[in-house]
Amino acid sequence: MSAFLLSFAAIFIAELGDKSQLMAMTFATRYRFWTVTAAISTATAVVHLFSVALGSLVGLALPTGPISVFAGVAFVAFGLWTLRGDKLSVDEESRAQRSTRSAFFAVTIAFFLAELGDKTMLATVTLATTQGWFGTWLGSTVGMVAADALAIGVGALLGRALPARVIRIGAACLFFVVGAWLLFEGVQITME
């Protein structure tokens, strides 16, 4: 349960202001909410299952102390990445606007490709090195889908009422806190 809660919170926060949220909003202007949400859920479940498998293998191969230190550094880097912000590339914007195939498959494929190497994928790999694989997979998947569904709904209702800068700074601060906690824990384990 702790792996689920930690993964849910970390990925939900990481997804705030991420380019995949922008893609979700773009797709939602063209397709039905439920179609976009189902496609995002499918793509996310597959990407995060791969991420958890990779993270679990790394977690088995390395000692806990160095993994926690690495995870702490990674989360600080994710915080810096979040402060920088994400924007859709011209190619990603084009994919979101010009789909002629089935909406479900178009959104699933575009979202899957956008998530490969994204900070939420890397955060999931990092979490899986020290947390249970199933809880991490489920929590990260649900956290990401919830953040994207929230973005679609809030984006439709509020438009630009909540500045993206405020969201980025808040998410980055939370990454810094988690990173500092993991660094402290890793150094403490290594010193024992």
What does this molecule look like?
There is one protein chain. By secondary structure, this protein is mainly alpha-helical. The protein has one domain. The chain contains 9 helices and no strands. It is globular.
Helix content: over 70%
Beta strand %: under 5%
Structural class: mainly alpha
Tally of helical runs = 9
Shape: globular
- Overall average residue pLDDT: 77
Radius of gyration: 17 Å
List keywords for this structure.
9 helices; globular; 192 residues; single chain; mainly alpha
How are the elements arranged and paired?
Layout: H1 2-15, H2 19-28, H3 33-61, H4 64-84, H5 90-97, H6 103-115, H7 119-128, H8 133-158, H9 164-191
Helix pairs in contact: 1-7, 1-8, 2-5, 2-6, 2-8, 3-6, 3-7, 3-8, 4-7, 4-9, 7-8
Quick synopsis:
The chain is an all-alpha fold and 192 residues long. Helix 2 (19-28) packs across helix 8 (133-158).
